[in-house]
Amino acid sequence: MVDFHQNGNIATLHNLRTRSLDQMTAELESYALSRKMSLVLPCLYSELETDAMPRILAELSKVTYLHRIIIGLDRADENQFRHACSFFKGLNQKHVVIWNDSPRMLQVGGRLQSMGLAPTEPGKGKNVWSSIGYLIGCQDSAVMAIHDCDILTYSNEMLARLIYPVANPTFPYQVAKGYYARIGNNKLNGRVTRLLVSPLLIALKKVVGERDYIDYLRSFRYPLSGEFAMRTSILPDMRIPSDWGLEIGVLSEAWRNLAPRAVCQVEIADAYDHKHQDLSPQDAHAGLNRMSTDICKAIFRKLAADGTVFTNNIFRTLKATYYRSALDLLEAYHSDAQMNGLTLDRHAEEITIELFSESIMRAGQTFLDNPHETPFIPTWNRVHAADQDLIRDLHTAAAADLEEFQ
Q1: Of the residues 42, 185, 258, 325, which has the maximum number of CB atoms within 10 A of its CB?
Q2: What InterPro entries does this protein's entry cite (predicted)?
Q3: Could you give the C-alpha distances from 347 to 330, 331, 352, 353, 354, in angstroms and in order?
């Protein structure tokens, strides 16, 4: 996407194809001398058995500016943890594999539970939160990046471009969000962004009126990307959602804690492909059906926190307005795909839009029925205030697991 358009809300840092990866890497190496950089990889054990993870490992082994890699490992038994430790030995950087399901880590979780501070459900949000807690305890990194572990098209240039805006000490950015074109198998992907988030934000602006937060979210070209970089000073006060609203939740936290000029989006790849979730139309607790509901709830909660009043009538109007906006955008997506020689199944897309319209109503009803719902995991500042030894004990548990089973 070679252009230089700026939206006026947040900075957009493009890839104008005028600078080599070697030049950017050399500059990052110089920054790393005084600003250590760490990478967090939230990982399911099953992802080690995919085609994506060996490629990611090979590409990361070429990176020379990282100080540490933290792998948060979920859904693994003892033998799988041993295998994961062996698998990641191929990394050239200092790294740690955190076995989130180990007896020691579960004991730490039990302490959080007794204080009422434990994450409410397992998943990526809990994994990221635990890894951030470990990184905070290290007290040696100025910059953190995070990306998914199912990227089939991964290259180390993605990481370099993602981390550069917050690593460069002359830049004002505290948070960088990666974006890219979602193209794979000769078709347009990114259904939840294209068919839910974009038309929902258009509909919200029509129904509830002008809101700075809505304009802020609309500024992101790919708000649901799993690639972030941040300066670590903001991590202790960051609330991480425990549900599938993680990406929207992190952007909302940046909105809550930072000025817009401290947030940027950066183009990190020409094309991007990863594991695709099933639509799961028959199961509201799985796949894109669950994800779309959680994303809607995250947006509604944030707007309500900023003073927007929601009622049943507003949600009914929002559903109708969303449906019309989504169909209008679908026409544009179809034209875009056809012009670029890509396929787009309009029937399947309309089925998806119909499911997402129901997700909007389900999320709205859940919001109205549970006004006190707090899906955010407590900040690490709050955890530390309640138990000043917990971060240290988290480190101790991770180290003991590695010593015993590695």
Answers
A1: 42
A2: Nucleotide-diphossugar_trans
A3: 11, 12, 9, 10, 11
Residue pointed to by tokens 């199912």: 150
Query: In 139-245, which residue ranges form alpha helices assigned H by DSSP?
Result: 156-167, 191-192, 198-208, 212-218
Whether residue 164 lies inside any domain: the answer is: yes
What's the domain count of the chain?
A: 1
Dig out the tokens for 147 from the structure: 């990306």
Q: 87: Cβ–Cβ under 8 A, 6 or more apart, which residues? A: 48, 53, 57
For residues 156-165, one letter each, b for 16 or more C-beta atoms within 10 angstroms of the residue's C-beta and e for the rest, the string is bbbbbbbbbb
Q: CB of 52 within 8 A of CB of 274?
A: yes
Question: Do 85 and 48 touch, CB atoms closer than 8 A?
Answer: no
- How far is Cα 229 from Cα 207, in angstroms, rounded to an integer? 33
In a domain, 5, yes or no: no
Q: Centre a 10 Å sphere on the Cβ of residue 171 and count the other Cβ atoms it contains.
A: 15
CATH number, domain of 216, equals 3.90.550.10
Alpha-carbon span 320 to 206, nearest angstrom: 11
pTM for this model (two decimals):
0.94
In a domain, 136, yes or no: yes
Instruction: Place 168 in a pLDDT band, splitting at 50, 70 and 90.
Output: very high
Q: How far is CA 51 from the centre of its chain?
A: 21
Reported as a single tens digit per residue, the pLDDT across 35-45 is 999 999 999 99
Chain segment 87-100, per-residue pLDDT in tens: 999 899 999 999 99
CB 136 within 8 A of CB 258: no
As a whole number of angstroms, the distance between CA 214 and CA 222 comes to 14
Task: Note whether residue 101 is domain-resident.
Answer: yes
